[in-house]
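Researcher: Here's the sequence for the chain we discussed earlier.
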Amino acid sequence: MTNQPQAFDHRMTVLGADDAFVAAAVPFIEEALYNPDEPPPVAIASPEKLDLLRDALGGDAKRAVLVPHTDWYTGSAANAVAQAAGYLAAHGGPGGRIHLLMEPVWNGQAGCSPRESAEWIRYEALANLLFAPLATTALCVYDTRTAGPALIAEARRAHPGTGVYEDPFRLAAELDAVPLPPSPADAYPLARPDAEAVRAWAGGSGLTDADAELFALAVTEAAAALGPVTGVRLWGQAPACVGELRSSRRVEDPLAGFVPPDTGELEPGQGLWYARQVCAYVDVRDDAQGATVRLQYG
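Model: Thanks. This is the structure I predict for it:
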């Protein structure tokens, strides 16, 4: 009898040794290999762990997709959402059925700073909402040799079944309660989010023509999605050019900018999605008067 698709199964394993990885990974991959209704399972991990998994699976390794995590996690947390959504659309079974073993590069960008780590915890939390309708089974690997104890403790709050799981909206709200650093007094003001003016400023601040174009599009597309923008401020030097938008309308939805366009192409109102794909950071802060959206390019 064919199994009916179930909701998103978001698991977490914490380990600190190679044999512990093999003990967790092999049964997970075999869950899919022994299920005729599933496409090949995917393991996204460090090359060293993939070698261990390949040896442990033997001939079955040819039936799985093994991806070095530096090939999968190539940018921001929002890029990881896009990568997963695109892969599921192209390769997932009915209802998104597939097994994904996932180990971000915790000793790389994802763990390079508390701010960056917080963005990945946001991704882990929002994944429970973004992929909720899908029959995808994900096992997130946290290796204590590369992921620190504070990161692992927060990650437990983003995974059901850990005993400390938090509602994703509550966890996202905690992250958004952290105040943004004040903007510099000498930030360059614009009366409106004009693409040509932003591009010219970015070029003068050291971005290449191509990067200045992307940054200008990110600022103007985000502004279009926000609605009435009452102020624009620009500061920084390449690559960390920053654009800040002030809107009279609150954003409120923590998923804003994380939901992929249905067509795969940018659609009206999807400016925050575009900005999150292009920029290293997009910070949204609501208050009683509206919202502040801060975009950092690099």
